[in-house]
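Researcher: Please generate the 3D structure of the following complex. Treat every line as part of one assembly.
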Amino acid sequence: MIIPLVKGLSLTFRRFFSKPITILYPEQRWECYPRFRGRHQLQRKEDGSAKCVACQLCATVCPSECIRVVTVEGPDHERYAESYEIDLSRCIFCGYCVEACPVGAIVMTGEYELATYNRDDTQYNMEMLLEK
Amino acid sequence: MVSLTIDGKEVVAEEGTTILKAAKSVGIDIPTLCYHERLNPIGSCRMCVVEIEGLPHPMTACNTPVVEGIKVTTASGRLLRMREETLKLILVNHPLDCPICDKGGECTLQDLVHEFEIDGAGYQAIREKRESSYATPLIHYWPDRCIMCLRCITACREIKGLGAIDISGSGFDASVVAVDKDKCESCGECISVCPTGALTENLSQYKARPWMVDRVMTTCTYCGCGCQLEINVLDNRITSITTKDHVGINKGSLCVKGRFGYEFIESEERITKPLVKKNGEFHEASWEDALNLVAENFNTIKASHGADAIACLSSARCTNEENYLIQKLMRAVIGTNNIDHCSRLWHSSTVAGLATAFGSDAMTNPIADVLKSEAILVTGSNTTENHPIFANYIKEAVLKKGAKLIVVDPRKIDLVDYAGIWLRPKPGTDIAWINGLLHIIIKENLHAAEYIKERTEGFEELKACVEKYTPEYVSEITGIKASDLVNTAITYGKAKPASIMYAMVITQHINGTDNVKSLANLAMLCGNISVEGGGVNPLRGQNNVQGACDLGALPNVFTGYQPVTNDEVRQKFEMAWGVDNLQGKVGLTVTEMFNAAEEGKVKAMYIMGENPLLSDPDLNHIEHCIKSLDFLVVQDIFLTETAKYADVVLPAVSFAEKDGTFTNSERKVQRIRKAIKPRGEAKEGYRIICELSNKLGFRMDYSSPRNIMEEIRKVTPSYAGITYERIEEEGIQWPCPDEGHPGTPILHVGQFARGKGQFTAIEYQEPAELPDDEYPFLLATGRVFAHYHAGTMTSKGKGLNMLYPELLVEINPDDAVSLGIASGDSVHITSRRGDIKVKAQVSERPDRGVVFLPFHLKESPANILTINAIDPIAKIPQYKVCAVRIEGIKQ
Ligand code: SF4
Ligand code: SF4
Ligand code: SF4
Ligand code: FES
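Model: Done. Output below.
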């Protein structure tokens, strides 16, 4: 009975003297881990065009159904996305879309500051997602 | 019967079945890739290998027949390894581009690769990106994805009977190429059987992936075949048309219009708001205002000129429910029988002719019956272009079942290639050659004496009448060689059973009714009515001609052909509709309506879904008639030529935007289903009619077409057993008198609808207008496969116009030489009624002295030329024959 109590308290006391985990946000900013799942980013090919082939797999796998891709056909029967939208207010940041993408066109960045004053600003379109 | 063991299970199978089918019958699945149920086994992929005890090598299950006592293993370790290797070898050549391939998600190869857990080829080959063109611009061929299963080639040959594509090259360079681009009809059969994404369609490429769309099963809106198809919808837009393998008469096939002709639905030219004309210009209006205006005008005209001053053209394009309501509106609310529809222009001589002979006017047999016929006589129907799916059946009967095909047609139509006998009578001489056949059959004693005695009347008169139609005499009139005629008569007379198919070319003559009766004579003479594989089968042009007639959009009958002149019938309808003054006087037919309009007897017209200003004969005359109307309402989906003259235009919806039923040419009542929401403010036809009726002071409350069908059933004996629940999966053929009745595929079994079959003695008459020195050519009008009717729908998309962008007049090479015309030259065609300018195409199809002109496109409306002489009984205009002059235009 007494031993667990001492064990628990010892942890508490140790924390008194260790470096604090909380930071003074926003003066100080947190460096996220490499595999952190933040805002999405669309990748470009070497020639600068979007990598996305508009296969709809991300939109299909997304559990909160917040991705919308419109596919069109190029003059040479190539397939590309005319528009690509993510509703970040619904996204649960599960990362399935990244996993599903067969060409690595969508990745998740470390950006986590996604609060907005305006609901409409949570709707990300293709240009916003392609921005570095 | 043969018994064998498959995977330890005892199986009994019929002799000749394949191991694959035998295995399936006991629930054992063998993987396949090139095998397709509708095709003869191809045996090109080797996925279906099985081991047979005692044989050193595995055998392919799809094309090895069962043998007594064999022991088959379908899934040993060796077989699985072999199948895996097979797949890997295919993947050497097949790119793993599933994410960008349209087929991804419903690809047989993809499924198999998944099943066998293969993640790459395992072998490498040097591949170059290849591009190759295909037989039609509507289909894209991806040579890299092709696995050389040969399904497409086999389907084109076996189902369509065309053989337009074949393999060229060998090894990695092999690809599917067009043998003859002109043969390809762009029907898309090859796409629908291709197991991979090697064939994709160019119209809907990439619009949606298979799993994203809703597939709504419905009935095609174009021709009387009544094919079942699925509309693929994503976000309220149509992305493509697909089919299910086993469903409907088409069993997965479609023609070019059905598969690619959907673009009109989303055309920008659709009207989306009611339009009201003020000072000669259309202004958008609210539904309320537009309908009030219609109601007001109808009321004033009815008050000042009587109900008969109002007339209505219903439509064979609209659903049964809409046709029923509009005739109810005219009869019960307005109080006139002036209602008709354009089937008059196609087939009312069928109604008149077959009704006299048999007592009922429809196709006597289902189309699939031709597979049981020994001989098939096709006349006046360019079946491959107008009823492509029916044509598939005819070809199958000839190619697979060995039926003899007799084609009687002045044009060298495509079916001639499959025919054993082809007769080429001069246009308009049908009665002569039919009487000739009757004469020979009686002389040769090939007629069914027993049947004639028991079931028909009027034989003696007929016999006396055809006495003088000796082969020589007929030959003089028709230009058919006497020996050919005899040959035909013997072939038809000896075949048991033999079937007759005909279409517009027979009916659109001033003696159309007599033509039809003559064909009925021929069929009865040989005892071919009421038997499987026999019959007289009018092929109905438009999707719902049959339904529009059935539902009483005719001036002389209520639904189910119950005559308006009959007091009892009228009382029944008065009770059902809650009115007390139904008119007993037969109303005006289409042609009479227009004439009456010109004379000022008809003041107002309601035209629902028709475009008489393109489809009716003698256009200049019709235009004048329409202009003389005081008030014209047009309900349509486009601002058609006719709608331009309207005072009020009401925007209706296409078949994809409404529920209801169509009745196909075989009398099969089939569902259509709403796939997308109406465009703009457009409304379903039944809502428009109900609202108008309410404004006219007669309550019509139907919450859905289903309720209308319930009412139809109560008043129409032949539809009494047809409910939406019963036709959910598969249509029912009327007559269907009660809910337990399975429907009637073959008419007149045991007894003719009128009691005894009626022979009619008919003499040959010359056509109304024959060529003379001034107008030396006979003009025949008709359709081409890529377009439909007035072209209102088919010319709206890019797809079908790609195939047949402009009107071409077909001229026989000999005539072309004497006129000094080459293909592509512009010519003037002049008749006594008008003239048009078109490009010429020199072709073997028309006979010398005859030119053929399709009537679809509004740029050069062929019907300016045609004649308005009408059949005295059916009042059908004589479109098919008129005399014209042709002159080349000097550049
Ligand atoms: S992270 Fe998850 S919820 Fe967010 S878009 Fe991707 S799949 Fe959808
Ligand atoms: S195109 Fe399709 S159906 Fe034709 S051979 Fe290639 S894979 Fe088979
Ligand atoms: S054959 Fe007729 S019903 Fe069938 S798809 Fe073609 S147009 Fe439609
Ligand atoms: S399925 Fe039998 S060989 Fe292809």
